[in-house]
Amino acid sequence: MRGWAFDFLSQPWPAITFLLLSALAVAVHRPLAERMRWATWPSLGMLLSVAIVLTLTLPPAPHVPIGVPGVADVDRCVGSLSDAGQLWRALISTTERGERVGNITMFVPATFFAVLAIRRPLLVAAVGVLMSGGIELTQSVMHLGRECVGYDWVNNTIGAILGVLLGVLAARVATRQPAGVGESPPR
């Protein structure tokens, strides 16, 4: 995993992808937040986190020739994402602990900031789960040397839900008033 990550990050595609998506996030976060009535700074955090997720999941894999986009692998991908036995095994075990940790932590910041920005945790959780599945399907269609596998979707989903839970906790802590605030003084 570590060698693959260094190879991947040494290519130009991740840097180009991140720079373009980050610039877009900075440019649109304020107008988007105002239009959607979201919190401004958490919206920027959400968009930058999504830029990181897309940078890590969509550029071509290192040392793999880029194929022609097509739907030939979609059946296998859908099968991987819907095979209950494979998804259960992904949930309870893994052979690559570093890959599992990376796939989980990748989605935590995006959903954490999304909860703080949007304040709709169930919607954020649903979008996080669907986004991960969409990334897996995109990887199978684009033929960029990436593989659509159910265990990535499971681990991304765990990360998305963990980020939602942390966002809900942070929102509750932030809205709590210190003891005595708002109370009238004793007489």
TrEMBL record:
Domain of life of the native organism: Bacteria
Domain VanZ-like: 95-168
Keywords: Membrane, Transmembrane, Transmembrane helix
Protein name per Swiss-Prot or TrEMBL: VanZ-like domain-containing protein
InterPro entries in UniProt: VanZ-like
Transmembrane segments: 12-29, 41-61, 153-174
Any single Pfam family the record assigns to this protein: VanZ
